[in-house]
């Protein structure tokens, strides 16, 4: 496919001098981009004008033939603080000092910032609270990432997006918006809200308009890698479901780390699903969500007519209908924040969340994403760079409790929050204190932090009848029902037909015991006879 991206390319070739900067913006994002003023780039500062700068040389891969744009969306209420998520840990390892090779973007989680239009501290606090409850500012989060790509994308760049919790949902929405309306050329800021409206309008009229908008204003881009930790669409009473969040043919590689032990009603796993005939290019949107757009010039057609015309429109406008995304969803032991990080203070070891981040980084190398990491950061989480580059080498067999000494037990959840034993333990080093397998054994036996046991306020939602959806049949059709969750574990879909992929660290935990002799039993309805163990 030939891409027509001249306007984007021209905007980046008007000058040849770039200077790099990392900025923390008022809406809670860190952005490392070439600095700019209109179309003019800041002049390069002579070396003698300041202290000598020694660039990083310890990155893998050290070079690649393309530039990578990496976007990271943090979880609900998460930002850089004393209990960082895996998104912050992941971002810390990325190469940031050469924007000609890799540009990076970090966005703090839903509930941590407000839109610039809200000026007073009182209203700002209300907006943040509503954002945390019902993703009040979800549109601002999605458009923030979209504008970063709009301003910085050049033809040939690879786009990689990561997220945790509702940041994972934001990441999937951003990929969906790029699929449906394309990517606007640089500096079209006024068009972004309109493009977002086109993205969210899910009826047949909206589909026609979005395709016309895409052909008129935008360019087609692909998503090289979409990696998420335990996607959650909403923790409030108002569900948000937007197009292309459950399947998306412009995403080449999708990786999802899923929690086996999370059991809160509004934290059900949001899986990547096979699109059915009416979802091949447009994901299902709740009727309530559709009504948000009925106040415009066009009214939504009745269900029957809408579905019939939508099918023909999908056949007419679908991009790469037969393209298949490389999908891998792997289940890990632990609750929501044991998968995406944030259950314990930064630097606490062992920690269940260290296992999914190591798996995700390994997948970045296995799929040849091109994302550049600092080797000292990889060693800091017990990843051996020589096992990842230039070739991803097979892992040694896992250790079991008692292999390296006295029998190890699963650690119960402590009554008081754990703190890091020594700040020096958290500092990345050129020397790995222990192998990945040794660290994995300890991390696999770390405590699980179940919020239904630790924060009883979550039980309010357990006692309310809430709607749940799952895709069980091979034809891609959905089943939905209302029920009281009452602390039930997650449902593992299609495991009898398709099997279920579970990380090998779960087997370490299954084979071990708690100090009182009781075994670990995953909260999800996992059938061990259908398990495929994953490294």
TrEMBL record:
<dbReference type="InterPro" id="IPR018712">
    <property type="entry name" value="Tle1-like_cat"/>
</dbReference>
<feature type="region of interest" description="Disordered">
    <location>
        <begin position="1"/>
        <end position="43"/>
    </location>
</feature>
<dbReference type="Pfam" id="PF09994">
    <property type="entry name" value="T6SS_Tle1-like_cat"/>
</dbReference>
<feature type="region of interest" description="Disordered">
    <location>
        <begin position="286"/>
        <end position="310"/>
    </location>
</feature>
<feature type="compositionally biased region" description="Polar residues">
    <location>
        <begin position="1"/>
        <end position="40"/>
    </location>
</feature>
<feature type="domain" description="T6SS Phospholipase effector Tle1-like catalytic">
    <location>
        <begin position="67"/>
        <end position="363"/>
    </location>
</feature>
<feature type="region of interest" description="Disordered">
    <location>
        <begin position="400"/>
        <end position="420"/>
    </location>
</feature>
<protein>
    <recommendedName>
        <fullName>T6SS Phospholipase effector Tle1-like catalytic domain-containing protein</fullName>
    </recommendedName>
</protein>
<feature type="compositionally biased region" description="Basic and acidic residues">
    <location>
        <begin position="286"/>
        <end position="297"/>
    </location>
</feature>
């Amino acid at each position: 496919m030939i891409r027509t991206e001249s306007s984007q390319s021209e905007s980046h070739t008007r000058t040849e001098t770039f200077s790099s900067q990392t900025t923390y913006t008022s809406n809670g994002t860190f952005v490392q981009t070439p600095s700019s003023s209109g179309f003019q780039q800041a002049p390069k500062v002579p070396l003698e004008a300041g202290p000598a700068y020694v660039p990083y040389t310890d990155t893998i891969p050290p070079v690649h033939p393309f530039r990578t744009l990496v976007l990271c969306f943090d979880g609900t209420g998460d930002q850089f603080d004393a209990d960082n998520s895996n998104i912050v840990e992941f971002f810390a390892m990325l190469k940031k000092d050469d924007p000609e090779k890799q540009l990076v973007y970090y966005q703090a989680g839903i509930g941590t910032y407000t839109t610039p239009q809200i000026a007073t501290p009182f209203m700002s606090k209300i907006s943040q609270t509503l954002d945390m409850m019902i993703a009040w500012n979800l549109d601002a989060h999605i458009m923030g990432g979209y504008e970063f790509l709009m301003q910085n994308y050049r033809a040939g760049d690879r786009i990689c997006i990561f997220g945790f919790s509702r940041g994972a949902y934001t990441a999937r929405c951003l990929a969906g918006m790029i699929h449906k309306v394309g990517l606007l050329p640089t500096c079209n800021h006024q068009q972004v809200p309109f493009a977002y409206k086109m993205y969210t309008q899910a009826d047949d009229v909206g589909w026609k308009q979005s395709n016309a908008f895409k052909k008129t204003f935008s360019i087609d881009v692909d998503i090289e890698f979409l990696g998420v930790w335990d996607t959650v669409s909403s923790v409030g009473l108002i569900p948000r479901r937007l197009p292309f969040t459950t399947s998306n043919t412009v995403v080449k590689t999708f990786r999802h780390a899923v929690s086996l032990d999370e059991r809160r009603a509004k934290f059900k796993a949001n899986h990547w699903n096979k699109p059915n005939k009416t979802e091949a290019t447009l994901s299902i949107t709740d009727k309530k969500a559709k009504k948000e757009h009925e106040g415009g010039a066009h009214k939504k057609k009745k269900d029957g007519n809408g579905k019939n015309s939508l099918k023909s429109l999908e056949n007419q406008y679908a991009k790469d209908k037969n393209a298949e995304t490389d999908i891998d969803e792997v289940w890990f032991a632990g609750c929501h924040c044991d998968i995406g990080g944030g259950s314990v203070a930064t630097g606490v070891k062992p920690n269940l969340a260290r296992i999914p981040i190591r798996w995700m980084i390994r997948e970045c190398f296995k799929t040849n994403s091109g994302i550049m990491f600092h080797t000292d950061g990889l060693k800091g989480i017990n990843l051996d760079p020589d096992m990842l580059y230039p070739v991803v080498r097979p892992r040694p067999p896992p250790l079991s409790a008692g292999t390296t000494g006295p029998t190890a037990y699963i650690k119960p959840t402590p009554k008081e929050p754990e703190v890091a034993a020594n700040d020096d333990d958290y500092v990345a080093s050129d020397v790995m204190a222990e192998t990945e397998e040794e660290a994995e054994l300890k991390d696999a036996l770390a405590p699980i932090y179940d919020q239904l046991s630790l924060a009883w306020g979550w039980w309010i939602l357990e006692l309310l009848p809430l709607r749940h959806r799952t895709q069980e049949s091979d034809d891609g059709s959905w089943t939905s029902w209302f029920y009281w969750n009452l602390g039930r574990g997650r449902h593992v879909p299609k495991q009898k037909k398709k099997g279920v992929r579970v990380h090998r660290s779960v087997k370490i935990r299954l084979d071990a015991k708690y100090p009182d002799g009781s075994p670990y039993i995953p909260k999800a309805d996992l059938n061990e006879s259908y398990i495929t163990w994953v490294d």
